[in-house]
Every structure is written in C-alpha cells, then in structure tokens.
Specification:
- The chain is α/β, with parallel strands linked by helices.
- About 30% of the residues lie in helices and about 20% in strands.
- The chain contains 8 helices and 9 strands.
- Helix 5 links the parallel strand 2 and strand 3.
- Helix 1 crosses helix 5 and helix 6 (about 130-140) packs across helix 7.
- The radius of gyration is 18 Å and the shape is globular.
Length: about 260
C-alpha cells in the first residue's frame, strides 16, 4: 500500500512543481507555512533545535519553514521521488542547511537515529501510514533524549463528514467513525490538487486510513515517548469544506495538536 501511495504522490507532485518558484520566493522572504495553533509549539527553535526531522515532508516547504523559524538544520523524509526532487530544488535555491531522504517513512535511515531535537509531522500525513506501531518506533529512535515530537493533523472526527455538503452530514462512504477500513481511491479534492487535467480513472490508486487519537497516541507511549500536551482544535489547514460556512465548521474539532517528549 505504501508503494501504491508513492506512485499517487508522484502524480500529485505535479501540482507542487507548478508552484515551485512561488514557494521559493515565499521562503526566501522568511515565510513560514504553519497554522496559528502550531506556532506556540515551534517557538524559539533557534534556542533548542539543532536538527529538526520532518517525516512525510512532501515538497519541503514546511520543512524549510522550520529553518526559517530557527532550526539550525532540517531533514526531510518522503516516499515520493518527485516530491523530494521539489524539496531539493527549494533548498538549493535558498542555500539552506537541509538533507532529503527518499524512502518509506518506516525505512528512515538509521544514520539519523538519536539526532533529532524535533520530529515534526502531520498536515494530512498520518492517514497514509498503514503500520502505526512501526511508525512510532521510528519516531522514538530518531529523537534525542529530551527531544520533542510535534504533530498537527486532521482530527479523526473530521473524516466522517461529506466535504461537499453545506452542513455536517455523514459521508456515505467514510461516515463510520469506528471503521478500520482502508479506503483505496484515485484522484484528489478540487480544493487541494484537483484533477491534474485527467479523469479520476487515470489517477493512481492511493490507500488511506483514518486513525483515531488513541490509535496514534498509544503506540507512541508504548514506544517510550511521554505525552506532554494534546489539544483538539476547530482550525483547518486546507479548504476541505468549500460549501460550508466557516463559523459552522468551527463548531466541531477539525484538527489536533500533539506534543510528546522522549525522556
């Protein structure tokens, strides 16, 4: 399933390639691509973060935003060849102290073990992983003692709603909050990557799974990482409800913020 997802994200990278120069200029001006709820957790990086490792870094804008916030060195890991290519072009243009690794997140190189002051991930990342205990073990081995994991991602309740509806309505396919089903589909939402100029039937099949909060947190605790703070938030990081009034969207949790620490 991860290999299928690699093919799908290689297709989706076309969108990221199209905005490459715009993103370089954004970063060159000191821009950071984070949402307001994330910023308190990423404050003062220059004082405590020698190396930040971004798992599932996509095109590297968020990774390089960590550098703009003060991380002395950044490392991005992603399964998509084309996404890593985009990230490499950004860091080269900026002369940024960055390394990039093209691999499955579960195969993150052992040369990085015990080197991260911060492991960052999220923004639509965890749903593409299909072995959370293995992922938690990777996070644990990457962190230094005292290192922090910070996750900002979609709240699992957000998956059950019909994203095209004008009010909260259970999606006919995804509407079971307790489902453990893997959903295998092609294509992208119009408010994110879109159809890339071809019908959905021509898109690579990707495999997505909704993980509930306990299914994410418990393996991290079992791997030896300590919970510091969990928040459930109304904030979005992409326009997933284009037809719903924003004030309505904010009545239910849409994202979560998770801070953990390796003792």
């Amino acid at each position: 399933m991860h290999e299928d997802n690699r093919k799908g994200w290689n297709e989706g990278a076309e969108f990221y390639e199209g905005e490459l120069q715009e993103r370089i200029e954004f970063l060159r001006k000191g821009g950071t691509n984070f949402e307001p709820p994330e910023l308190p957790y990423l404050a003062n990086l220059s004082e405590w973060c020698q190396r930040a490792i971004h798992l599932q870094c996509a095109g590297g804008t968020d990774t390089l935003s960590l550098w703009n916030l003060g991380a002395h060195e950044v490392v991005g890991v992603d399964i998509s060849d084309r996404m890593i290519g985009v990230a490499e072009r950004k860091s080269a243009a900026l002369s940024a102290p960055a390394q990039w690794f093209r691999c499955d997140v579960l195969d993150t190189p052992h040369e990085l073990d015990g080197t991260a002051d911060l492991v960052y991930t999220g923004r639509g990342a965890i749903c593409w992983i299909h072995d959370i205990p293995a992922w938690a073990a990777v996070v644990h081995r990457l962190l230094k003692p005292g290192g922090k994991l910070y996750v900002f991602d979609t709240h699992p309740l957000s998956y059950v709603w019909d994203i095209k509806a004008e009010d909260f309505r259970l999606d006919p396919l995804y509407g079971d909050y307790f489902s453990t089903k893997v959903y295998s589909e092609g294509g992208w939402p119009e408010t994110y990557i879109g159809d890339l100029g071809k019908p959905e039937s021509e898109h690579a099949i990707k495999h997505e799974r909704c993980w509930r909060l306990g299914e994410i947190m418990n393996p991290l605790v079992e791997a030896g990482i300590r919970l510091v703070k969990l928040e459930e938030l109304p904030d979005l990081f992409w326009d997933c409800y284009p037809n719903m009034p924003p004030e309505r969207v904010r009545l239910l949790p849409q994202t979560f913020s998770l801070l953990m620490e390796k003792p």
